[in-house]
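pasting Spondin domain-containing protein for the record, 233 residues
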Amino acid sequence: MKRTLVTASLMAAGLFSLPTLAADIEVSVTNLTHGNHFTPLLIAAHDADSHLFQVGTEASAALQKMAEGGDIADLDAAVTGNAGVTSANPTMGLLAAGMSVSEVMLDTGDNTHLSIVAMVLPTNDAFVGLDGWEIPTEAGTYTMYVNAYDAGTEANDEIINGGGMSGVPGIPAAPGGDGGANGTGVMDSSDNSNVHTHPGVLGDMDPAGGMSDLDSRVHRWLNPVAKVVVTVK
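structre below
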């Protein structure tokens, strides 16, 4: 069975190659966007061979559920079913722009790598992701700036449908109630159906029409979208 977890933009202190062993770690995640939310986070410690997703490969059904609708249940089950450990939904809901979740504690056991995913809302299939970061054995604090990725499962039309179910075109409604309606759709000529770096949101300033249902003054973003701080005890 193929096991698929993200590549991040790393700007970390001391990220040289180290042999890894079990460690108690503390994780914090900050939403760096101006007006977007993260759906429930999945923070996972796992072995070196497991991946929640991999850039350049086709998204799994579990990744699609998370990237299009914020559902982390299947990814969580895949990690724990392979002897990994997780913290699922530590925010108990959405993580708003500029907000952080901190002091998420994980006893990694025999697991040596860390991954983090959450949907960026509202988007068609963008997700913030850290993929298989090797947990250092040296105690200290390590900081990473993490990109958003496109699952490649849905065109980025920026049209709100209010549903948020995987496989249903369109995106969930903007949590802040600041989305528009009646957009004609962004013309996305990309045919990349594999997981890839997300180009960001365009939006427009017409709440009752235009090409996008997203407000460019609120929802537009570029990478990186999250700051992750890991403290190895």
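The radius of gyration is 17 Å.
Confidence is low (pLDDT under 50) at residues 1-20.
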